[in-house]
């Protein structure tokens, strides 16, 4: 049987816990062959601001064309896209190549404080890329920005936001409740019903890259042919184990541990359906 392939179009996170690095580590954990197109290089933390270096569209397109011609893809994820120009060009590439199983993680601000999407790129994200997605995976601040500043504080707000975001055109919306009080509940909406994915809250600050790794796990599971709700459930187990066994290095917010689900297994996640 041929191994399944997943492409990530995202930024390089030099610290290794988020971005392209997290995506490729996650694909590997799911036994999916990972390829990558780097949109920007991020070498930034609160102490040493070496900055954000976007790549030219010429460099990004060269990577995409090489992958499309030589390897192919069963699923695609977008992460940090940074500029309006990159979003518009990536959107055209996705349409031209008729790519399916598209996971859009509308990355905006990293937990270390980096601005990963320019203000003027928001409209292109909202109206060009998001409508093409099989699933979008905003966290609470990202969902709020996409909805023009809607207040999101409770589980009911999460459900409301998912319903409103679905009107933009994606087939599924997953709003992540990582910043809620109490259990970590995420809400998936498919236009008809809600799926609630719940995990015990883990008391740690070391969750760098949790969103990237979660959406990459969903991408890998879609590449393997799972339905969207099954893919999200499997990915939720993966990321909860990654947070439970997250890593602490010299300073800053430490990364999730990508091998944790394979090494230590399940973590008490549940899925339930609500009409
Ligand atoms: N402290 C935590 N304990 C358990 N799960 C968490 C915790 N923080 C975040 N999560 C979960 O991790 C996943 C990523 O969420 P989040 O951290 O909000 O994304 P992002 O990294 O995009 O901000 C979600 O499933 C969320 O519910
Ligand atoms: C290059 C790059 N891309 C995306 C992110 C954001 O990652 P995320 O998983 O949302 O986690 P945090 O950074 O918020 O912990 C990033 N930091 N860098």
TrEMBL record:
Pathway: Cofactor biosynthesis; thiamine diphosphate biosynthesis; 4-amino-2-methyl-5-diphosphomethylpyrimidine from 5-amino-1-(5-phospho-D-ribosyl)imidazole: step 3/3; Cofactor biosynthesis; thiamine diphosphate biosynthesis; 4-amino-2-methyl-5-diphosphomethylpyrimidine from 5-amino-1-(5-phospho-D-ribosyl)imidazole: step 2/3. Pfam families: Phos_pyr_kin. Keywords: Kinase, Thiamine biosynthesis, Transferase. It comes from Aciduricibacillus chroicocephali. NCBIfam families: HMP-P_kinase. Its EC number is 2.7.1.49, 2.7.4.7. The keyword Cytoplasm does not apply. Transmembrane segments: none annotated. It is an enzyme of class 2 (transferase). Residues 15-256 form the Pyridoxamine kinase/Phosphomethylpyrimidine kinase domain. GO terms for molecular function: hydroxymethylpyrimidine kinase activity; phosphomethylpyrimidine kinase activity. Belongs to the ThiD family. It catalyses: 4-amino-2-methyl-5-(phosphooxymethyl)pyrimidine + ATP = 4-amino-2-methyl-5-(diphosphooxymethyl)pyrimidine + ADP; 4-amino-5-hydroxymethyl-2-methylpyrimidine + ATP = 4-amino-2-methyl-5-(phosphooxymethyl)pyrimidine + ADP + H(+). This is Hydroxymethylpyrimidine/phosphomethylpyrimidine kinase. It comes from the Bacteria.
């Amino acid at each position: 049987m041929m191994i399944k392939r997943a492409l990530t179009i995202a930024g390089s996170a030099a610290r290794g816990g988020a971005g392209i690095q997290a995506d490729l580590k996650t694909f590997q954990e799911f036994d999916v062959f990972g390829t990558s197109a780097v949109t920007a290089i991020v070498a930034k933390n609160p102490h040493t601001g070496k900055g954000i270096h976007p790549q030219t569209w010429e460099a990004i397109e060269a990577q995409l064309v090489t992958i499309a011609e030589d390897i192919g893809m069963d699923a695609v994820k977008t992460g940090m896209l940074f500029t309006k120009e990159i979003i518009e060009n990536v959107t055209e590439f996705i349409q031209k190549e008729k790519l399916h199983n598209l996971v859009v993680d509308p990355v905006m601000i990293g937990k270390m404080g980096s601005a990963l999407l320019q203000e003027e790129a928001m409209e292109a994200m909202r109206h060009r890329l998001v409508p093409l997605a099989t699933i979008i995976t905003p966290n609470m601040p990202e969902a709020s920005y996409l909805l023009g500043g809607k207040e999101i504080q409770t589980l009911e707000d999460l459900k409301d936001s998912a319903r409103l975001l679905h009107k933009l055109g994606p087939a599924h919306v997953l709003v992540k409740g990582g910043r809620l009080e109490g259990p970590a509940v995420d809400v998936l909406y498919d236009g008809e019903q809600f799926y609630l994915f719940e995990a015990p809250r883990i008391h740690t600050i070391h969750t760098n890259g949790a969103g990237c790794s979660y959406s990459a796990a969903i991408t890998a599971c879609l590449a393997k042919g799972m339905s969207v709700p099954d893919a999200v459930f499997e990915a939720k187990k993966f990321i909860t184990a990654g947070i439970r066994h997250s890593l602490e290095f010299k300073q800053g917010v430490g990364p999730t541990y990508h091998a944790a689900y394979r090494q230590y297994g399940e973590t008490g996640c549940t899925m339930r359906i609500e009409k």
